[in-house]
Amino acid sequence: MVVIYIGDELTAAGFRLAGAQILLPAAGEEAASLAQARGDGQLVLVSADVAARIPRELLGAALAALAPLTLVVPDLLGRQPLPDRAQRLRRQMGME
């Protein structure tokens, strides 16, 4: 299985030790890195920090697709919090 991590260098070091391929996008290259990873990998892990800089519709399509499985994961530095899915669901149901 080809696992690709897109994110910061510090967090990437751990994923590299686990056998993942790494993409460290420069500013403005986040969407292109996601497209490349989705073409090459079977599991794509995107740091929350990088995910915040990818256009919402592109990231949403990647997360909704069945293949390759794409997930947003925290980075070691915690610069960007993970999305609160429970809050989003409550808002969509009119509970907030």
From TrEMBL:
GO terms for molecular function: proton-transporting ATPase activity, rotational mechanism. InterPro entries: ATPase_V1-cplx_f_g_su, ATPase_V1_fsu_sf. The keyword Cell membrane does not apply. Pfam families: ATP-synt_F (PF01990). The keyword Ion transport applies. Keywords: Ion transport, Transport. Belongs to the V-ATPase F subunit family. This is Vacuolar H+transporting two-sector ATPase F subunit.
